[in-house]
Amino acid sequence: MLDTFYRDFGYGYRPQWHGDVVDLEGTYLLPCRHTLLVALHGDEVVGTTAVRAHGPKSPPHPDWLARLYPDGTTAQLFRVYVAPAHRRRGLAREMVRQACRFVAECGDYRAIYLHTDTRVPGAEVFWRSLAEPVFDDRDGDPEHPQTLHFELPMPTSCDKSH
Fold first, then answer.
1. CA distance 97 to 130
2. How many domains are there within the chain?
3. Residue 160 domain-assigned?
4. pLDDT tens digits for 136-158?
């Protein structure tokens, strides 16, 4: 995950945005409605996807968006990353499918939300293939995240497509 902050995002680790990656256990493994999926190639971590029972925060996101996706009933996908050498092989799609299965098995979420930085190569095209955009927050400033917000369809516990 840290590699992605530096390589793909270009701004590195920022505690106000990335504190979860230094407390994986407390953020993703201990809370019963959270999870962290990790893809390995041998001993190397080549992909991650996480689910948290939190919607987008305001600030930095608009207040109306935070109200639309409230904490508790929103499953937010986080840290969907695949190492460059392992991209375009279906790994991210499979990890998102597994994350959605986890959400469905929890049974009490009403929405699956995520946001992505459109500067990451392939991110926007990937998410548009799976989800519906709900807000385009790109402001044209190359120094700030160029964020696109999405909602994924809610799967049922027996839905094999997600």
1. 10
2. 1
3. no
4. 988 766 666 689 999 999 986 54
Q: Could you read off the pLDDT of 26-56 as tens digits, one per residue?
A: 878 888 899 999 999 999 989 999 999 999 9
- For residue 16, the domain's CATH number is 3.40.630.30
| 135 falls within a domain | yes
Of 15 and 125, the structure prediction assigns the larger pLDDT to 125
Q: Do residues 82 and 91 lie in contact, with contact meaning Cβ atoms separated by under 8 Å?
A: yes
* 144 belongs to a structural domain: yes
Q: Tokens 């902050």 belong to which residue?
A: 5
- Which residues lie below 8 Å from residue 102, measured CB to CB, with a gap of 6+? 35, 51
3-state SS, residue 55: coil
142's tokens: 């190359």
Cβ–Cβ < 8 Å for 79, 2: no
Q: Which domain holds residue 121?
A: 2-152
- The whole-number pLDDT of residue 120 equals 81
| C-alpha–C-alpha distance, residues 132 and 54, integer Å | 19
Mean confidence (pLDDT) of the chain: 86
Beta carbons of 46 and 86 less than 8 angstroms apart: yes
Q: For the chain, how long is the longest CA-to-CA vector?
A: 44
Q: Which residue, chain included where needed, has tokens 């390995």?
A: 40
